[in-house]
Please model this.
Amino acid sequence: MENSVSGFSKFTKAEKIDWLISNHFQNNPKAKANLERYWNSDDSLQKLHDEFTENTISNFYLPFGIAPNFLINGKMYVIPMAIEESSVVAAASNAAKFWMERGGFTAEVLSTTKVGQVHFMYHGEYSELETIFNTIKPQLFEQTKSITKNMQKRGGGILDIKLVNKTSKLSGYYQLHVTFETKDAMGANFINSCLEQIATTFKASSDTIQVVMSILSNYVPECLVRAEVRCKVDELDTEAYSGQEFADTFIQAVRIAEIEPYRAVTHNKGIMNGVDSVVLATGNDFRAVEAGVHAYAARSGSYSSLTHASIENGVFKFWIELPLALGTIGGLTGLHPMVKTALELLGHPSAKKLMTIVAVAGLAQNFAALKSLTTTGIQQGHMKMHLLNILNQFEANANEKLQLIEHFKTHTVTHSAVVDAIENLRA
Ligand code: MEV
Model:
């Protein structure tokens, strides 16, 4: 095939880039220079990044921002956030300050169980399968001992192994549903190693069992965290509206997200702005978190809000509950220098503490979004933050930026208004 390549992974980095530039960029030196511009000047740091993944030819930066003033369970935090979207860090910081002045956030981990499954086919009598399973079950634990030894020392390990009959959904389909406690590790490698050993032992017990696959589940409805803010309704008063008006409209917005999937997806997307940015900054797997959180949001059969709100006895309450499988040891956490900085900034949290911090970041983000949406609208603040992006796109110099930022303090920011203003200034 045209442009196909074999043995690419064996090429050196320079050879990979040369192949790419000559085959896909018409030998344009600018394309090559752009890739090289993003290399780190510290060779050992670049090598570290090169080795995180395969076929690395350059780096792709995300801004690393911080949101101060988070009071969580009585302790102050500065939260690290890796995110490219303007307004997110500002919104988190505003919400943090707002709630710091009203008692802060409380958060608790409700459960920490993770799940993995051996999926297999069996076409004999169910009672015989049950006998095979019950006979072999002690060995399933026994044979994983070399893998679970260290985890057990830390208080974790395999919690249980259950045989699950799924034949009503798919003919001949069964599972070994395995639950795990992985303490401060996210545990993906640990879980998958245990599952593969369990599958091997199980398969060897009978030639009537056909193992299809063994893999952890990113659906972790029993690895749950809850975060909350609350204050008297009149503590929400401003000059523009009463606390009661604000809280009533805010609660309506939450109710809409609870019952209307189109709105719920956007509502939860805003929550994930906060969640993902902390998950990423702390070296965790945001795709796993995303998949698990959205499945949880749809657990009733209809996709719904992750946050809820109420007023009881004059007290406004706003809370989030979501599943988060996170780690603060293993994976990137001990490798990526910025991840190490992020974890140090958070005081080297346990996985449970990180769950509370991430949940709070999600709740704060949702509070800020709903506060804007139900009062001034989102665009006012958003476009102000977006202004800098547009100015950078037009390569505005420092002086132009100063003048235009001043100008847009009293003018509405739209893409075309900024372009006109730049052109006027330059004319
Ligand atoms: C934008 O990234 C997130 C929001 O759309 C969230 C929301 O609508 O709640 C502002």
User: Anything to note?
Assistant: The chain has a mean pLDDT of 96. The two ends are 52 Å apart (CA to CA). The domain at 64-109+224-376 is CATH 3.90.770.10 (3-hydroxy-3-methylglutaryl-coenzyme A Reductase; Chain A, domain 2).
